[in-house]
From TrEMBL:
Lineage: Bacteria, Bacillati, Bacillota, Bacilli, Bacillales
Protein name from the UniProt record: Bacillithiol biosynthesis deacetylase BshB1
Gene3D superfamilies membership: LmbE-like (3.40.50.10320)
PANTHER family in alphabetical order: N-ACETYL-ALPHA-D-GLUCOSAMINYL L-MALATE DEACETYLASE 1, N-ACETYLGLUCOSAMINYL-PHOSPHATIDYLINOSITOL DE-N-ACETYLASE-RELATED
Pfam family for this entry, one: PIG-L
Residues forming coiled coils: none
Transmembrane segments: none
Length: 230
């Protein structure tokens, strides 16, 4: 029996969620929220690292962030398409953890897998609530779905102040040495040519909009509900 999560974050590859929202994850786990990450692939097509090292790095990052769960569906890297089989597997993951909130990559990004992941999660969140879809499992109505940025940044609907948790974000990203650090046998990629520094600069710019040191931005397809203005 899987533990119910408050928040479930999907990424195409291990490190996607950390790039986009590790500060927000750390902030919520510190407050006692049950947070999980589901990586869709083992990133087996990555230019650097191996499946085994990526799994070890993901486990290390999970410990840094205090995750309740981290899973991997083993879908093909660079083979993510919106298919009934993939939607079923992701829907089953949502029903297993019963999250109140789901995060997915923003639907525009330079990496096609991130775009495909976004589309798959949107389809699966919708199907998860249908009682006649996969009737052998209990339907789950996700209360909120939000989108985080990975490579490309667009206008955010809201931001989260992660200033007090930015060291944790940096530590989580540092777990992915095979991706962000150059060494013997590595090849040059956008990820090991100052990428982490650019992520930090992005988060500084996002925070500057509200006079914060660091913030992470998110998008919602639904209007944000406000009970009152304080």
């Amino acid at each position: 029996m899987s533990e119910q999560l408050d928040i479930l974050i999907f990424g195409a590859h291990a490190d996607d969620a950390e790039i986009g929202m590790a500060g927000t994850i750390a902030k919520h786990t510190a407050l006692g929220y049950r947070v999980g990450i589901c990586d869709l692939t083992h990133a087996e097509m990555s230019s650097n690292g191996t499946v085994e090292t990526r799994m070890e790095e993901a486990d290390q990052a999970a410990k840094v962030l205090g995750l309740t769960a981290r899973t991997n569906l083993g879908l093909p890297d660079r083979g993510l398409y919106v298919t009934p089989d993939y939607i079923e597997r992701i829907t089953a993951e949502i029903r297993k953890f019963k999250p109140r909130i789901v995060f997915a990559p923003y639907w525009q990004d330079r990496h096609p897998d991130h775009i495909a992941c976004s589309a798959l999660i949107q389809e699966s969140v919708f199907n998860a609530k249908l009682r006649k879809y996969l009737p052998e499992t209990e339907p789950v109505n996700v209360e909120q779905m939000y989108f985080y940025f990975i490579n490309d940044v667009y206008e955010a609907d809201f931001i989260v102040n992660v200033t007090d948790y930015y060291e944790t974000k940096t530590a989580a990203l540092s777990a992915y040495r095979s991706q962000f650090i150059t060494g013997q046998g590595t090849v040059a990629t956008p990820l090991n040519q100052g990428y982490v520094e650019r992520v930090e600069a992005r988060d500084r710019l996002m925070g500057q909009k509200r006079m914060l040191q660091y913030a992470e931005g998110f998008v919602s397809k639904l209007p944000l509900l406000v009970d009152r203005f304080d």
